């Protein structure tokens, strides 16, 4: 007899949700997390994906992904449909899909600036169905310019603890009218995991991949970067840090080390990393390797398994998915203390509890708390600069010093291989725990709970709303700037 997932609901009795985000068949961070959510909750909800891509080759088509989902989940009646789209959609496309699919809710996922057009039509939508938002915001000051967007949602699922506080600070009194929950990104522990010599086939592939990347001269210590080559990721600073680290330990030891970067060497949103490497690194002993092509999840897991530590030193980072994947694969992490990366390093407060940002101490980027999980080597930013643009007038840029990053790499290097392995496995144990909630299974449980709470409490918007015309209050900071 078929064993049904816990909480299974028959197809005809499920709520249907239109999820608007990247095409869930693709490999961006958004697509990866959305796919895990759709797969992991397909026994509870029916899903329609308005799947975005730049110049989508399948635009105008409709795909039924239910059979593939059935095979993955081991059940017979999932319902997953996707509509490829150029970009994130238009009001006309959304109206058409609502007419065809009749969803019970609409769920958004990615930066609110992509959804301005949707928030402008929220009054039309929320008269009949709720709006759900899997939301993140990178940094302070709390973005009061996002208030109309947050007000346009019935549910705000906050990816980071910092984002949850930001939602509450920005909404103020109106927060009580929303469902606001903490739903951190979750990684599938069956996709990312440690590989050992007893896993004969996988271990053989791992050795083949290492040889293909590094050749016959295999390094003894590898630092890994897995993210886009864009400015806020501070890729050049990481290369500078690695170069300095090599000088600190000496040429002969450095010859046995490597920096492995899974990213494009050139990106118009970043820089020319070939030129940066040529400038900063002597190829004789400061060895930098690039893997530029997209990889399958199992190939990505092998990359994590061939390194000693994954580094991400972004000056703005909502979450930092490569750190979570690295921890799930049993590898240590180096991260700048900003945004959602703080959650993954598990800073402890004065009571020995996992630090919870609040109105008085909304972030740990000033280094208020130093104690952290043994799998992590934090770097604290040395300069917090307020930058901005017209759509986002102000946001802190938390930039760390590449010299501090070099020291962090050296600290990890100075651990024995056994110590690095023990710390990495402690990270995997924590990231799969009920406390962290960062496994795919826990993420999906949180999504289900958040959405069902919203369905239980949701009230349609009134057909008409009376608004008293008066002078708008001055937008002023709602938390300390220094804490």
Short description:
With 483 residues, the protein is of the alpha/beta class. It is built from 17 helices and 16 strands. The termini are far apart.
Outline the structure in words.
The model has no long low-confidence stretch (mean pLDDT about 95). Strand 10, helix 11 (about 275-280) and strand 11 form a beta-alpha-beta unit. This protein has helices at about 30-40, 65-75, 90-100, 115-120, 120-125, 145-150, 160-170, 200-215, 235-250, 250-255, 275-280, 295-305, 320-330, 340-345, 400-415, 415-430, 440-455, and strands spanning about 15-20, 45-55, 65, 80-85, 105-110, 130-135, 155-160, 180, 220-225, 255-260, 290, 310, 330-335, 375-380, 385, 395-400. It contains 17 helices and 16 strands. An 8-stranded mixed sheet has the order 3-4-2-1-5-6-7-8, sandwiched between helices. A 6-stranded parallel sheet has the order 11-10-9-12-13-14, with helices on both faces. Strands 15-16 form a two-stranded antiparallel ribbon. With about 475 residues, the protein is α/β, with parallel strands linked by helices. It is globular, with a radius of gyration of 23 Å.
Outline the secondary-structure elements:
Elements: E1 15-22, H1 29-40, E2 45-53, E3 63-64, H2 66-73, E4 80-86, H3 91-101, E5 105-109, H4 116-119, H5 122-125, E6 131-135, H6 147-151, E7 155-158, H7 161-171, E8 179-182, H8 200-214, E9 221-226, H9 235-249, H10 251-254, E10 257-262, H11 273-280, E11 288-291, H12 297-305, E12 309-312, H13 321-328, E13 332-336, H14 341-345, E14 376-379, E15 383-387, E16 395-399, H15 402-413, H16 417-431, H17 440-457
Helix pairs in contact: 1-17, 9-11, 9-15
């Amino acid at each position: 007899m078929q064993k049904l997932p816990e909480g299974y609901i028959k197809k005809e009795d499920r709520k249907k949700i239109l999820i608007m985000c990247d095409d869930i068949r693709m490999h961006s961070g958004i697509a990866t997390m959305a796919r895990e959510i759709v797969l992991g909750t397909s026994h509870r909800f029916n899903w329609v994906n308005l799947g975005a891509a730049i110049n989508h080759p399948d635009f105008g088509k409709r795909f039924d992904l239910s059979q593939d989902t059935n095979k993955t989940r081991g059940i017979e009646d999932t319902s997953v449909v996707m509509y490829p789209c150029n970009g994130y959609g238009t009001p006309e496309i959304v109206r058409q899909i609502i007419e065809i699919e009749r969803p019970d809710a609409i769920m958004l996922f990615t930066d609110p600036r992509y959804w301005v057009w949707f928030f402008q039509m929220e009054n039309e939508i929320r008269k009949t169905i709720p709006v759900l938002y899997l939301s993140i915001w990178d940094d302070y000051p709390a973005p009061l310019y996002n208030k109309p967007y947050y007000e346009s949602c019935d549910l705000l699922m906050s990816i980071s603890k910092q984002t949850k506080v930001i939602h509450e600070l920005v909404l103020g009194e109106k927060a009580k009218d929303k469902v606001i929950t903490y739903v951190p990104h979750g990684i599938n522990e069956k996709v990312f995991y440690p590989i050992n010599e007893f896993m004969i086939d996988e271990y053989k592939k791992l050795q083949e991949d290492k040889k293909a990347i590094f050749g016959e001269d295999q390094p003894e210590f590898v630092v890994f970067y897995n993210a886009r080559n864009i400015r806020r990721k501070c890729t050049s600073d990481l290369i500078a840090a690695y170069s300095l680290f090599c000088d600190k330990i000496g040429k002969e030891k450095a010859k046995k080390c490597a920096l492995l970067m899974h990213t494009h060497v050139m990106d118009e949103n970043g820089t020319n990393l070939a030129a940066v490497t040529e400038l900063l690194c002597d190829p004789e002993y400061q060895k930098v390797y690039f893997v530029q092509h997209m990889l399958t999840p199992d190939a990505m897991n092998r990359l994590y398994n061939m390194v000693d530590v994954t580094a991400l030193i972004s000056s703005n980072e909502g979450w930092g998915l490569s750190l979570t994947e690295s921890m799930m694969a049993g590898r240590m992490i180096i991260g700048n203390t900003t945004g959602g990366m703080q959650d993954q390093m598990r800073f402890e407060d004065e009571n020995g509890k996992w630090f919870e940002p609040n109105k008085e101490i909304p972030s740990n980027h000033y280094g208020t708390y130093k104690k952290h999980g043994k799998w992590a080597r934090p770097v604290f930013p040395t300069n917090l600069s307020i930058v901005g643009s017209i759509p986002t007038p102000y946001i802190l840029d938390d930039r760390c010093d590449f010299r501090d990053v070099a020291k962090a790499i050296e600290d990890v290097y100075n651990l024995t291989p056994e110590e690095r392995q023990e710390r990495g496995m402690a990270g995997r144990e924590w990231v799969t725990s009920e406390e962290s909630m960062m496994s795919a299974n826990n993420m999906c449980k949180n999504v289900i709970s958040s959405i069902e709470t919203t369905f239980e409490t949701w009230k349609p918007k009134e057909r008409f709303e009376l608004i008293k015309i008066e002078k708008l209050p001055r937008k002023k900071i709602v938390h300390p700037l220094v804490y």
